[in-house]
Structure formats: structure tokens, C-alpha cells
Known about the structure:
The complex is a heterodimer.
Chain A: E1 50-51, H1 54-60, E2 68-71, H2 81-92, E3 98-102, H3 112-117, E4 121-126, H4 131-138, E5 146-148, H5 153-159, E6 167-172, E7 174-175, E8 181-182, H6 194-202, E9 205-210, E10 230-233, H7 240-243, H8 254-268, E11 277-281, H9 285-301, E12 305-312, H10 314-321, E13 325-333, H11 336-339, E14 348-350, H12 353-357, E15 371-374, E16 378-380, E17 385-386, H13 402-408, E18 411-415, E19 419-420, E20 423-424, E21 426-427, E22 442-445, E23 448-451, H14 456-465, H15 472-483, E24 491-500, E25 506-513
Parallel strand pairs in A: 1-10, 2-3, 2-6, 3-4, 4-5, 5-24, 6-9, 9-10, 11-12, 11-15, 12-13, 13-14, 15-18, 16-21, 18-22
Antiparallel strand pairs in A: 7-8, 16-17, 19-20, 22-23, 24-25
Helix pairs in contact in A: 8-9
Chain B: E1 7-10, E2 17-22, E3 27-33, H1 36-53, E4 59-65, H2 70-84
Parallel strand pairs in B: 3-4
Antiparallel strand pairs in B: 1-2, 2-4
Helix pairs in contact in B: 1-2
Amino acid sequence: xxxxxxxxxxxxxxxxxxxxxxxxxxxxxxxxxxxxxxxxxxxxxxxxxxxxxxxxxxxxxxxxxxxxxxxxxxxxxxxxxxxxxxxxxxxxxxxxxxxxxxxxxxxxxxxxxxxxxxxxxxxxxxxxxxxxxxxxxxxxxxxxxxxxxxxxxxxxxxxxxxxxxxxxxxxxxxxxxxxxxxxxxxxxxxxxxxxxxxxxxxxxxxxxxxxxxxxxxxxxxxxxxxxxxxxxxxxxxxxxxxxxxxxxxxxxxxxxxxxxxxxxxxxxxxxxxxxxxxxxxxxxxxxxxxxxxxxxxxxxxxxxxxxxxxxxxxxxxxxxxxxxxxxxxxxxxxxxxxxxxxxxxxxxxxxxxxxxxxxxxxxxxxxxxxxxxxxxxxxxxxxxxxxxxxxxxxxxxxxxxxxxxxxxxxxxxxxxxxxxxxxxxxxxxxxxxxxxxxxxxxxxxxxxxxxxxxxxxxxxxxxxxxxxxxxxxxxxxxxxxxxxxxxxxxxxxxxxxxxxxxxxxxxxxxxxxxxxxx
Amino acid sequence: xxxxxxxxxxxxxxxxxxxxxxxxxxxxxxxxxxxxxxxxxxxxxxxxxxxxxxxxxxxxxxxxxxxxxxxxxxxxxxxxxxxxxxxxxxxxxxxxxxx
Lengths: 518, 99
């Protein structure tokens, strides 16, 4: 069946109430019955929940074949915990038929690709999938199609019981002996633990893995001891160098700066740019640089930003310290400046993934967002964005909070160069739709700006401010005139990944790619 | 033109390609590309057209493409061919076979 973004969804996937994507806000007003975990009582006073090894923790939680284990990705590409846990489960306990439900996965998890090839890991549910794991899943080696969700779609699915987590693993930079966790104070600090919060509340069992045991009580705790079954102390939960970069630097690339300046111009031309406005930006070159130019307009008009959300990095913390933004609310930290600021700098708070972006709760932060500035691998003439699959059709990205912030914000701006190498970023039809075009408002490229015709109000704003803009079709033609018109990818029938829209409907599928024979 | 010896042009940098030509019988092409699925056919056509324009009838050609544009592909093929017959130092037929 064809969905609202024109993608053919196989009927075999439309079972157990699954529907195809119908357009944004389709589920508004509906009720959900939340799932509840089945958790163990610990009535008898306990001095400590520390167990000697991960294998002991798994046994304590009744780990068996066929279970779903959850992980969060605050340790980013420095994470050791996913690999350690899966190794203990598969090689020490001999488990198989396991499903990994992670908030994201990266090339740090390349060893899991072997477990997929061996048929030990049979299911993957994640936002990001990259590296070798992306390759083996794209090659159709995972027994069931991977399920890709946004950061808001994941807590929605957990709360609705579409994902039942048997054991959640919390990678904790610090924990006390009963499992109160924080993202700071240790040797592998990551700041916010926002993505782990929903998992800890909805999993049957929770295991905390830490490399820095601190005195009880470790407060204020991001994950609380009341939800934790066992604590394991290991030598190292991750490589600090890869957890948080030294400092996210603002790009000096003149092309990035030009695009960033245009993003700021577009923002300043809208009626939402007023005292107390709210903002999220990515950490890519031009997105981050937009901060710099926005500050100039804020000074000019003598206004301040009310609040900012997102993955947070240094430049936003700087604005907070300078008093130019009222509050920063944080689900993940990207650099040490942000890690060292959360819950310390007045006005810098932590939030859960659900609070950030869940479309099925009663009001996530994204719903009050004025502006979001995002990147894209590809954007097509229907303003549909792909941030998941490469031009070769292989899984190598992550929707992350992209679809959530795009849907919730008043103005969603995509900033991307027109071409990357030989790839046309602006194209006729994206490989995979990860953010539907009805949520995307403005495209800023190095060859011009295009506004979604669904937003005549924004077109009028740009015209009034004298900001030139063109049609997205003309940008696509410009791109193709530079790099040539690409051939369509050829696919086999086998579906290797299902892309869920944030509301739980099916937005697109990724099929197995057919290699090109010349 | 006749390929007298093995020669190459280009780099493995992003947006470039490395073209190697060797003596052979007939034209054979070995192509790998970071944009194979979307541009493989076009790259092949561009390389073969360029060889034909230069009058190369016998060559074993290897192209390792890193997303080069057509103009880059043509230039690298031309350069490799001219180098292979020691014709790259002077008297390049600008506006003739090379355009």
C-alpha cells in the first residue's frame, strides 16, 4: 500500500494494527494503553546490588535466549558496554535469538555484526545504524528487518508496548552501590543520560554498568536505584576521547559560513524571531555556525533566546553563560564543555527522550519549538529528507531527533550543500524518506534558498525581507547539471529495514540493494 | 593512440579518480566507484568515449573512482593515455583530441 509520501509499503508489514504513514499529526487525540513492566520486589533491605560480572548480572535478571536487551548511546563512538554485554550473553551464557533495542548504534559496535552473521542476534531496533552492522543488515543477514525509529518514536514504542525490554543496560559514568546513576563525576563522563530514562522505567530488569563507583547516594540521579536490579563495576565503560570531543568548533569553511548566515537571515525574517524564542540546532558545520550569525541578529534587535534543546555542545553553553539564552534543556552532550556544564551551570537541565520528542505523550519540548536547523544527506523535490541511507542504499545514518523536531517546530530549516562530491543532495526522489516533506519548511543551500509551497506565510516573510529564493525543482536541476542525473538504485524484494514514522506508522522500507553489473 | 607502457593519472582523494592504462588487446575496463550504483554506467560511458576520441583501440584501463565529476574523469583518462605514450610533456593537442 502506498503511503502519504508515495512509498510502497508491503502488506505483509501491515499487521497487528500497523498502518502506513498518513501525514503529520494523524494520531493526534487518540488514546494509548501504556504497557507496564513486570519487575521484581526487593523488600529485604540490601546493603548493595553489586555483582561480580556481567554474566552474574545477566543470570540474576533471568537472561535467556529470545530476550530483548536495551542500550543507550550517550557514550557514542566510545561505547564499550554494548559489546561487553552481548559478549557475556552469547559467549558466556550461550544465549541466542537476541534482539538489541538501542537508542543508536555506531561503528563502535562493529563486533555485533559477527553475532548477526552467526544468527545469535536476530533483531535490531535503533535510531542509528552504521559501520559493519549497517553493511550486514543491508546485505540481508539479519533474520528480521531492522526497525528504525526516531528519538521520539522510540519512547512512544516502548510506552505502547511495541518494544518490550527484558533487560535494560545503563552505561553509567558514575553509580553508587544500589544503582543511582549520573553522567558526570567519573572518568568516562557523558553528561546527560536522557535516552536511558524511559528504558529504565519500562524494562523488566535494569543493570547498571559503571567504571566509577561513588558513595551512596549519587544524587541528583538520572537513573534511580528504585528501578535497578544489579550494578556491575567494570574497568572501563568507554573511551573518553570518543565519548565527547574536546570542543565542537565552529566551521571556518566559507561555504558553511555563507549558508549559516542565510539560515540566520531566514530565521530573523519570520515573526517567530522575537524575545523568548526557542531553538535547536544540529552540530554539523553550517548548522552549528548558524548560532554565531543568530547571535548577531539577537544583539541587533536586543532580544534573547528563551530556551534551547537538543544534543547540546559548547557554543550553546557559551550563549547560556553570556545570558543570551534563558535555559538549555539537554538530552545528550556532544563535547566536554556541555558535559561539564549540565546540572552545574544555572539553567542547564537534563531531560528524557520522551520529554524531548515523544509524539504520544502530553507535550514534548519539540512541540513548543520555534526553530530547528538540521542537516540532510538528501532532500527531494517533495521536501522529503533522508538521513539514513547512503546513495548506495546502504544503512549508514540515523534519523535521531530529525523527524521529531521537524514535526514539532514552527520553522524547520534544512541546511546542506547542493552537492557532495558527485552526489546531488537535492534530488528527485530520496533513497529513503526519514523525515516527511510536510514537516520541512525551508531549504538553504550554497546555490540558493527554497521554501516549501505548503508555507506561503514563510514565502511572504522572505519576500518582505528581500531574501531571494527559488523553487526546489530549480535547485535539483542545478545539482544534476553539475553532477549528472543519477540512475535509479536497483533493489531486490527483501526488506532489510522498516522505517517507522515518529507516530508509529510506516514511513518507508529499505530493501536489499542489487549490486550494479556493468 | 597506442598505449606503449603503463601510466596513471589522478589520485584517490574524494571527488577525484585514479586512472591507470596498460597495453592490452582491445579495450578492457575495470571500474570501481564510490558512486557505482547511481553513476557506474555513466562513468563507464565517459571513459570509453574519451578513449575513442583519443583513438585508443588497445588498452587495459583501471579506474578507481571516488566520486569524480565527468570533466575530471575525462581529464584523468586523457592524461594517463598521453603519459603512456610519452606525449604528455609538450604539443598536447588542445582543442583537438583534447577538448
